[in-house]
Design a protein that fits this description.
The chain is of the alpha+beta class. The protein has helices at residues 95-107, 159-168, 174-188, 194-201, and strands at 16-25, 29-37, 43-51, 53-60, 66-74, 79-83, 86-90, 109-121, 130-141, 153-158.
């Protein structure tokens, strides 16, 4: 892991909460309104969305350099979204256990090898949600088991196609974009097996890493 450079040390004083009230609560999230004081000393109301699950993202990497994506309708934006397998894990659960469950439920896959490659803060100006990203390899088929609100399409696509779709905005889900970029960086930097990296990075007419 890279050492944190000295220039990343915080400056000034942190935000403070003088009082808080619970404005909304359900089994998945809460909304708390704070009487907050900014690092500048300015007082202002501040709403924070609290999450009761960790966000989990899994990039399934096949030996031939392809990845598995799932397509589903998403409610907040009223759109259709192609993503890597994702979901939630209770705060007390090992994130890896949640990743294994989501891969099986959404993509109908199990993996022999797992690697946690990212820890992310999701929209950290308004939520406390934390996300963990995993790369899964050594993939085999398993029975899919979506929950009662989920309806998926599952597609196996070349890694470079998935990456291009993310960079063009056609794949807009933040976790998917972040994980595809992370996997590309790992392939380029030699952090993945050479044969796998070659397969991931090759264009259809190419056979070697560029």
């Amino acid at each position: 892991m890279a050492k944190t450079p000295d220039w990343m040390q915080p400056h000034g004083r942190p935000w403070r909460s003088h009082a808080a009230r619970l404005a909304y609560d359900n089994p998945w999230i809460s909304v708390t309104e704070h009487d907050a004081e900014a690092p500048t000393g300015h007082r202002a109301p501040y709403g924070v969305v609290g999450f009761k699950n960790l966000a989990i993202a899994v990039l399934p990497l096949h030996e031939d350099g392809s990845v598995t994506l799932v397509g589903q309708h998403r409610f907040p934006h009223r759109d259709y979204s192609w993503e890597i397998p994702e979901g939630g894990a209770p705060l007390g659960e090992d994130p890896l256990d949640g990743a294994k469950r989501e891969l099986r439920e959404e993509a109908g896959l199990e993996a022999a090898d797992w690697r946690q490659v990212m820890r992310m803060q999701m929209s950290n100006s308004v939520t406390d949600e934390i996300a963990f990203g995993f790369i899964a390899t050594g993939l085999t088929e398993a029975p899919a088991a979506p929950d009662e609100t989920e309806s998926f399409q599952v597609r196996k696509v070349p890694f470079r196609q998935a990456l291009d779709l993310a960079l063009s905005g056609a794949v807009a889900d933040m976790l998917s974009v972040a994980m595809l970029l992370r996997a590309h960086h790992m392939a380029v930097e030699g952090e993945l097996p050479r044969d796998l990296a070659q397969a991931m990075l090759a264009r259809p007419s190419e056979g070697k890493v560029r």
